[in-house]
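task queued by scheduler; priority normal; single chain, no ligands, no partner chains; default sampling; output format set to structure tokens
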Amino acid sequence: MKALVLAAALSILSPLTAMAAGAGTLTPPKSGTVKVAFVLSEGATVIDFAGPWEVFDNVMLPGHGGDMQASMPFELYTVAPTKEPIHTAGSGRPGMTIVPDYSFADAPAPDLVVVGAQRGGPGLDDWLRKVHAEHAVVMSVCTGAFKVAHAGLFDGKAATTHHAFFGGFESEFPKVKLERGRRYVQASPTVFSAGGLSSGIDLALHIVAEYYGQAVAQKTADYMEYLGTGWKTNRGVNFPVVASSHEEWSGELGPGKTVTLHIVNMSDGSLTATADGPGFTHAKADLRVVDDSADIRLEIAGHPARFAGKAGDMGDSITGTYTQDGRAVSMTFKLISRTEQ
């Protein structure tokens, strides 16, 4: 009887062990654990790192004779610009206090890096480029995609982020192809991005499946009592894009020469704009805003124009240079009105 029970158990474990040996596209280290570095800085969104943390922390591989430590393939740690305590997001206030395990200067070489929404800090770009060059897997969650994109890891490739920031992402990173309606996107064999918040759990489970097979990932999801199927289907939600506000900006080119911008802010963070001015009306305006810098190109038939400037401290003025027909004029756009939709 015991022999029959053992044989039955082995028949179940055998295919799982085969999957655990590597059924996906990612290969675990030949010995030791998969080292996972969670990047943290001020304002880190908790679920962006805590969700994937719980996924990797709860992976259990079969076939280790009850040795729990041997069956847990992921080794987790936190890394930040310094080892000084950081505060997570906290509903407009400082959230939880976390003391990072390592700084970028002394962190162990990771096999996998998780970058959630956060403010970032000195050295992040260089560190991400370094670990990427050393073949670490890099996954962003939510607006952590902005940090990975800023380091250039998405250039010429596809990525996604939180749906409310699609427009801003496209504007800031024109070299990246934004994917909508998906829970996660694979940019290259070792670079991934997830949409907002809970999408990070789906991407983490997908990566577990890529390392150790879908059966191991499903067992992990079951243990977590996670009923989401996005990690298997990769089906996201196509959120409708609607206008959220309308702004009017006005600038003086000279006596009696006014340029007015009509800007519509969309719910995905994108902007649409037109302009009226001397000799033109309803000209299409290609508006790109990065941090406090604005670049506006006006499609005026036969006389294209460009304005480049920086926003003032109050955010209600942009001072820069208006260039048209080879002539450059200093100009300040001022916010005249703003209407919420």
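post-processing summary
- The two ends are 73 Å apart (CA to CA).
- The first strand starts at residue 34 and ends at 39.
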